[in-house]
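sorry to bug you again but im stuck and you know this stuff better than me. below you get a single protein, a line of residues and a line of whole numbers that encode the local backbone shape. mainly i need to know what kind of three dimensional shape the backbone takes. anything you notice is useful, everything is just below:

***
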Amino acid sequence: MRRIIKNSLQLNQYFSKEYNLVYKNFILYILLIAFIKLKFNKNNIKGNKPSIQINEYALNALSPLDGRYEKNISGLKEYFSEKALIKYRIKVEIKWLLFLINKNMVKNEKGEIVKISPLDLGFFLKKYLKQYIILLVNLDQIYEKFDIEIAKRVKEIENVTNHDVKAVEYYIKEQLEKIPVFSQLKEYVHFCCTSEDINNLAYSLMLTRAKDKYLLNSIDEVQLKLIELSQKYAEKPMLSRTHGQVASPTTVGKEFANFTYRANRQIKQLNNFKFSAKLNGAVGNFNAHIFAYPEYDWVSLSQEFIESIGLEFNPYTTQIEPHDSLAEFYNTLSLLNTIYLGLSRDIWNYISISYFKQKSKKNEVGSSTMPHKVNPIDFENCEGNLGLANSIANHFCQKLPISRFQRDLSDSTVMRNHGIAFGYSVVGYKSLLKGLDKIEVNNQKMNEDLDQHWEVLAEPIQTVMRKYGLENPYEILKDLTRGKSIVQKKIQEIQLKIQNYQKIKNYYFRTQASQLYRKCSYNGSYIKIFMKFSFFYLLIFILNYIMIKQYKYLFFCNIKYLQYILQVYIYMYLLFFIILQQIYQQILIHYNIIKNNEIQYKYNIIICKYDLQ
């Protein structure tokens, strides 16, 4: 008993020592963490940023789109990666299979027609009803719930076939074989199709989705910022410059509105653009289609299928769709990029003459050797990236419409680079938007320039002289003002020298040039038009979203029934749009914002009454 007690005391003493040691280490650990955290916070107070985890893949990326700029355009991978191309190929193959079933072309080994609707099962036994519904859902979800594992499996098959489209076909057949009763459908996958039938549809869908859901969203952000600046500086006077020399006054807002309106015309074309597509076999003649089913009108069926997935039918092609629509699209995109590129250069020049100031951040560096610099790097970045995007877009326009005889493969490698044209465009837009967020008007510099260049009023003065019939008004003002920098006092002397001055002495300009220019050369009707466009774009986005959501919930219905439902939605959509447009138009007319459906641009020369006597 004593031995047990002794051992227990020794054991307690041992654990007590160990506990004290652990406790002491724990206290030291807490103190160490507190010290590091305090030091870390001090470094932050001093302006040192905390350490950031560096992406090694970005450092090793061959293209800056996948490296330096990846964070700005990561969403484009959903539309233009190899994984995305596989997804859209699968989608086209499945849509085509379901279309054939719906047209009563697919038969089982007994020659019985396979029906699409669970309500009209045909040869199917009742016990297969549940499996049949599962198949329809799974076919849709192959691309709706597409993941990297599916893409990997397709690539594994491609390693054997050495053919990317055939690998997609084999993958879908694998999925059909998982339900024995439907294994008989597998030979209708890729039925009567050549690879380019699948590819051109897949690429057109990719481009459409990327345009609507990503590209136009980035463009809209720039447009909204330009509208904001147009309204904000609508009455801010500024000397204009033609040939690099001072000219008649304008306003900052009006100059922003110029670019906004120009860009909006191209955006409207992009928004309404539809890519052309074909599905007519190996050389565009429906050879295999007619041989297999001569009783069907394959031209009409092909058109019906292509238009059902939102594309424009091209009836005359070779093995490939000739890509003319792609050239048209990239011409429009290139022109839009050129407009924004010109805007970037203009703002760069305005910054160089101190008309705009840039908001600086405390810890940013402008130059590695000149501490005072705040460089317009965002506008320079925009210019460079939009130039790259245009060079690729221009190559698309020159290369893609040309193919030898009925087809050569030189377009295939080019078609894989749509993401680069989109990527550099979006990087340019984001840089432009970032730069626009940083600039602010330098009121002092603009007003100084206005007060130092009263000679620009020679134009309205000689115009008034013409109005009252004075001889040689242009020549008189030319002699007095050409090549000269004139201040306010000099303008008053010029007025006194004008013959028959008493006829116009009651018309004179405000003593402060900046007050005069504030109301010159600008009318805000542009901005109201832009807001109208933005309102209807938003309405279109919302209604399209509602229709897509409704479409997803109707996958159990017959495809014909779906088409009827969608037609009803479209008619409701158009009716709703027309009614809203008419109401809004009447409101605008009521407030004299839009008259006779034209933008009323008024160049106002304000001549204020002032009696020198």
Q: What stands out?
A: The mean pLDDT is 76. The chain has 23 helices and eight strands. The CA atoms of residues 505 and 594 lie 37 Å apart. The chain has five domains: 1-52, 73-192, 196-449, 453-517, 533-590.
